Amino acid sequence: MSKKGRVLVAMSGGIDSTVAAMMLHDEGYEVIGITMKTWDYASSGSSKKETGCCSLDSINDARQIAVEKGFAHMILDIRPEFGDFVINNFVDEYLAGRTPNPCVLCNTHIKWEALIKRADQLDCEFIATGHYAQVRKENERYIISRGLDDNKDQSYVLWGLSQESLSRSLFPIGGYEKSAIRQMAKDWGYHELANKSESYEICFVPDNDYRSFLKRRVDGLEERVDGGLFINKQGKVLGKHRGYPFYTIGQRKGLEVALGTPMFVTEIIPETNTVVLGEVEDLSKKGMWVRQPNMVKYASLDEAMVLQAKIRYKDQGSPAWVTQENGMLKALFTDDVKAIAPGQSAVFYEGNDVVAGGWIASSFNPEEE
What we know:
The protein is an alpha/beta fold. It has three domains: 189 residues, Rossmann fold (3-Layer(aba) Sandwich), CATH 3.40.50; 56 residues, SH3 type barrels (Roll), CATH 2.30.30; 87 residues, Elongation Factor Tu (Ef-tu), domain 3 (Beta Barrel). 27% of the residues lie in helices and 30% in strands. It is globular, with a radius of gyration of 22 Å.
């Protein structure tokens, strides 16, 4: 075994994970590459050409790099675990009137567990991925912080990682800009890899049409939910809709109802198959409750802290007073925040460090509580 140690590297076949593996190899680690098969497009019912992290081409790309660099590579089929947990949760969340975050679930509950398990079997001290994030140990805790490249930072999707998982995780590219990663690939002679396009789709919804996916996945869903009512906040009926699971908080397009002014989805009530519409100001809220928090930087919040709260991946974040109450996190924003969607991740930052993250349970205005 090398002096640096043995590391199991998750390789999707894309540029980021490939460069991560090559960096560790060149640094003197004994690298074992692993490509996880989470899904295949034939199962999704989509006619789109298979691309991305689960495709045969991507698996072959990862294997070819490993062979050329002289380290081991294996394929791990985790489709059963992925389907049972991630996809069932995806469907259940929409049926509950929430907007799911499947990539967070996949990272924290499927991929990392699979990596840790296989790393133990292979006597690997570490696991590594191509995420743009950083991790360090401070005051006996392992802390995730933002990647150096603000445009690529992926700390938001890693809030659910346990202290045990973080203690063994390496993020080799987290301290680099994307442009530098592309240049590294070119310097190693992998020009095609350097120019490889990236996919931002959910792997099991390759056409980005989650509504069609739900219809295929849930027998009779259209018939069960069709014809529900659009109402305003006063309860006045504004029209009929196609079924509450097919709408998300903040949605404006595709409502198919003309009211003379732009209207947005402000609330979803699954029990009555009702979708509440309002004007843009009705989307604004001052606070939110966050369930199932994972504490990262501190073991707990003993007093209120002003933190930067991100409520979606591309959100720039908003300052909020955050407290820990009854097993949840309560955030009171200093300014109104629009379109807080239950089911999405809320991640709280102190500077560049992730303090905690969790699932948005609800939003509110203080006068409503």
